[in-house]
Amino acid sequence: RCQDDVVQLQEISLDCNLVENNVQLRFPNSQLMPQIVIKETDLNVTILLATDHSVHRFTLSHPTKLSRNASNHNQANTATSVLAGITLKDSLQHYNYAGLPSVGRTASAELLDDTSAVFAVVLSTSIAVIVLPPIGSNDGARMMEIHPGTFMQRFISGLMFGSKMITSSDSNLLPQSISFRRLSDGKLYLFMICPRYQLRIWSIEKNDFVLHLDLNIYRPTPVDNDYGAADQQNTLSTSCGDMVFDNGKLKMEYLGSVNDTNSNIFINFTVTNENIWTLWKTSKGETLLKFLPVLGLQKNLLGWYQVSLSSNENCDTAVLNDADIEEFFMRFIFFPGRFSRSTIAKAIQITNHTVTGQNASLSGVYGEGNPPSLDLLVKDVISLMSYQIQIACDAYDEISDEAHRSIQENCWSKFCTNCQDFGQIEREAVGVFADSGTGLVCVIRRNVTSYIYPTDRIESLWDKALVSSDGMTDDVTILVECVGLIKRQLTQDLQLRVEYDLHRGLDPILTIREIAEQICGNLTNASAEASAIQWDFMTKLEKKLTAIRDISTAVGSVIEFLDVLERINDADETPSGSEGIEQISCGRLYSSRMALRILSTALTDISHTRFEICCDLLLLQSCILFFENKTILHEGDHCHVIKCLLMPRTIYLLRSYYAIYWLGQQPCSAATGDEMEFNMRQLAALEISSASGLFSAIIADPNYTLSELYVTGSAGYKMRMLLMQSEIWCDRLTNSNNWLLWPDVAQACFGKLLQLFWPEHRSVPLLECLVGNCQYEEAKFYINMVNGIAEAGLAEREFMLGQCYLSTGNGSKALECFISASDGIVSTKFFWKLLMSEIYDEKRAVSLYYMRVMRLFEQFSYFDLAIIAARTAIDSIDPQDPEIPVFWSNIFKYYLELGQAKEAYNALVSNPDIERQKNCLQLFVTVLCEQLEFKTLCLFPYEGFVDNVSDIMLSRARNINMSSNCYYDQLYSFHVYRNNFRKAACVMYECSSRLAEESVGIASLQQQAKCYLVARNSLQLVSADRRWILCPELQLPISKSNVDKTENIAEINTMIDICIPTLKSYVMGTKIIKVNDISRNYMLVISRLQILQRDSSPKFSEGQFTSEEILVYLILVGLFDTAFSLARVFDLPYTKIFEGLAYKCYSMSNDRKNGYQIEDEEVAWLKANDFSFISTIRELRPADLAWRLLQHYLEYFSGAESSTFYACVANKLLSLNCPLPHWLSLSLKYDFLSEATQLVMDYIDGVHGINSTEFGLKNAVHADSPSVWLPYSSIDHLLKLLDNISSDTELIKLKQELKDKLGRYLEFADKISLIKIDNEKSRRMNRELQGIAGSGNIPFQYTS
Fold first, then answer.
1. Mind listing the pLDDT tens digit for each residue in 281-312?
2. Nearest 5°: phi and psi at 161?
3. Beta bridge partners of residue 214, listed in sequence order
4. Geometric angle at alpha carbon 432, from 426 and 435, rounded to 5°
5. What is the pTM of this model?
6. Residue 10 forms beta bridges with which residues?
7. pLDDT tens for each residue of 796-827
8. 3-class SS shares of the chain: helix, strand, coil, % to 5
9. Region of residue 1216 (phi > 0: left; psi between -120 and 50: alpha; otherwise: beta)
10. 1285-1289 contact pairs (CB < 8 A, 24+)
11. DSSP annotation string for 263-284
């Protein structure tokens, strides 16, 4: 595209998507000439262009590498354009550039065999022929000028200039058009069209004119006026000839002339070796393209052939009916490829300005720069039209639904008209391009390019252009004339009504018969009174039908042309031997986005054309049946053949082509990334991989139509594989010089695509593509259409329909479709791939199929439907099928997911596989336990599985950390419900044992106490001889009882959590536990809990303690009631308890004696003991209560060891220098004189330093140690009591020993006292001397 000094180059490939394919080159201070020549060789692409001051050559290299990924339709096919390497710097090299001596007007160029380039430029007074040297040459450019005047040659400035002078010097004799052409001798010639239709041919090799020819002699009508006069007429006169050599002399061999007398505006033309192509514009602004075959010009009686340029810009509101207006117009406006973004943006801008008050809610910016994105355009169109409709409705106080719909339609129609107007401007045709090498013909428009594809035989037949040697052609031609005669009688568009019926699932034959009856209903009873027009129509139609020799055969011939079913091959098999560059090139063939759109658009046009032919043919047959009583139909029983054979086949073709056409008219629904991901998970549930070829997914783009989506995917790949098997490709392989031409290859591709899109046998791969790309609603509509066409593939389509219903949330209908599809499992190859079975086993096919269906429902959480599918499978397959246990297992699992425990249990017991029963039982128990359904779990009988349930729960309990373990409680309930109290006790005992090992804290101790208590109570419910249990010995690699209590508790918990999953392997053995053992453990735990109530130190809640340790802690915190109970249970001595209680009494008495206030915390331990033996507690002080408690216990334990208890209390009190209470003295007086005497003597020895620690003495009597107290009053009382004894010799002896020992002690004490007095005097003197010396007051002075 050239504009002023800028040329825009764009490379478009039909075989791959190009990147960096659009460049702009600017030539400052120059005006580009539009004649740009592009030549391609095996090595390079050469671009030759000229400005009004210079000529340039650009050489671009072909890519050296080809990707093999293009052979796979799932791989992106992209390549870098050759334009990516273009630079102006290379074009300014001396061998790629040459200047002009003056301003040029028009130019032509050609590439020579040695890579030289020759340019011909028409200057103001001459013609310059410039030759650029080969690439990389050191030579400069050569220039030769052709002047009007004499024939001479000259050289200027080192360049070779040649001059051939024409007789006149008038510059008007210079050619208006020049072009290089190679003739049959292989040499290059310059053709020049001069004024007054003078043709001059210049030989580049000879540097001379070789032919001067007046073309007026070949024109049908001589023109004597000057050049340009013919432009004022609307007639195009075309004369064609072939340049040949006669005895070495060039001459033109005239072939013929054809005139075009239509009043059209001529735009452009081009010529190939086969055709002359002309581009026109009608008075209505429509574009016409015509071509004229060159070789058959003399025999051509039809003249110009007109190319049908289909346009998808016309909006027919007649098909609106009851459809949603906004949805209808939005689908039309944003149909892929219909309007560009700039067109829609301009329509929005102009509509926004025409509305009263501009709409400020538009999201995009219009009128500046690039148009907004497609999403913004959709949003703004809806917003703008809603605003415009609201303004129109505001003018009415009240408005009916019909009026509101009319306003909607009017506003949307205006906006749609604006889009069409701007679209027509953007699509205005400016030229035609035709390439003889490839046969490609394009119409160049302002912003787009239209590709011309060949029509097939049936379209040519319907256009009366089919030439055949058989006699059947005459009958078919008359048949087509009958169709045209009938169509002229139609008052409405037949195709629209039929499309409406097919779109809504109605039978189109009813509409056809109604129209036929309107046209021909009165033919059989026609009379002279009928109107002249009706009579003329009846007469003509009857004559034409009479002229057909065999009506049914003629109709059958047309149907045979339309039917492609018989020409379908198996497109699923990839041809063997397709390797190397051939496979790569075929894999790339027409794989670009542009080519795929061309193929899908052409396929849509072809299918629509054939759909119209089927409509016409069906109407013709319906009209023929009204002549049933005529003799023309009696021979051969034509009516019966038409009614029973031909019309059903025509209806079948009508539906088939409409289905293909509908795919091309339906844009894709936008699929989000989440939908695609969910779709992939759904395919994973079917265990389908990309290698299987099923459901290959492409990212669905709203800019695709459904047919384009399919061609982009598997259909395009299969088309190329089929093309490799075709004759046209085989001819190319056998003949390297036989290049593939666009008309031939395109025709072959269209035929293959029709096969691949044919609904009867090819609907399943297409549905795989739709479902794989989340086009569920479109797939459902297509399936309903195809189901009305053919029965083949019904099972596959039902399966696909089930997939669609499932994905759109209608599980019930999906189940119906899946069950219906199961009838075709055995006989359909599609299900072989679905089941991924290399060796297809018919017996297992149904079970494998329903297995996939179950997984699909499971993926969507339709567990109730999955159960129905599984039960249907069980009823359908052989009872010995190995998959039956799997179905029952799944039924059980789905019932469990639904929370229906009873049904799940029934499914469990129905499973014939014992191992699967056990697995399901384990899941059953686990789920119910986690849901805390204890009662439900216990209610089932578990016939034959009670031990299994117990083992499962126990195993589960042993493999779960005790911090969140509820299985022991549930297992206890399970056993109690079945009156198995010993197992219940065993479970609780194991639970408490693990709690002691693994858990710490008050909560753990409380739980242990409960477990021990429950276990003990359970054993109490059985007979006495059976009150024992057998429990496992668990030995953990680490526990909280065998670690240092100062370690980090969090670290210990972490280590326990790691070891718990393998707890099952640490059952070291078993041990017998009796009810007394449980009671003792319970007592230990209760004691610790009571200790924690008095002292919350963490050390009491961590680890495990012996009974002796707990007894000590009980004494420390003052829990003497519990201490005595613990000692009684574990058979521990009471002496430590009495000593502890005696110390408590002493402490409280000593504090009161010294005047200290006793805090509430210090007497709180009293409240923890039982004082029920005292009636008036409030009147007693805390110290008195303590002494009373001690007295109570001494009196309570007045058995054989009572003297021991009194003695230990007295010893403790005496060791504390505490006077014995009166009641204790009396007890000693009457019962314990000998023990008291011995205790006093031992105490005196302790004061002397003998066994002092037994009495708690810190030191003995020494001169340098503190004083030691001796209870003299108590000793005096004891001696007085002993003095009263006269009969007991043992006591007398003890009295004497006590007096002797006391006397020795007193003598020793006197000595110690004297020593201490002396020592004290010495220390006092020393302190006084040290004080005087320190103050400096010295009483004497030393002199020498």
1. 887 777 888 887 776 555 555 567 778 776 65
2. -110, 135
3. 198
4. 135
5. 0.72
6. 22
7. 888 889 888 888 888 899 999 999 888 877 77
8. 55, 15, 30
9. alpha
10. 1285/1233
11. --EEEEEEE-SSEEEEEEE-TT
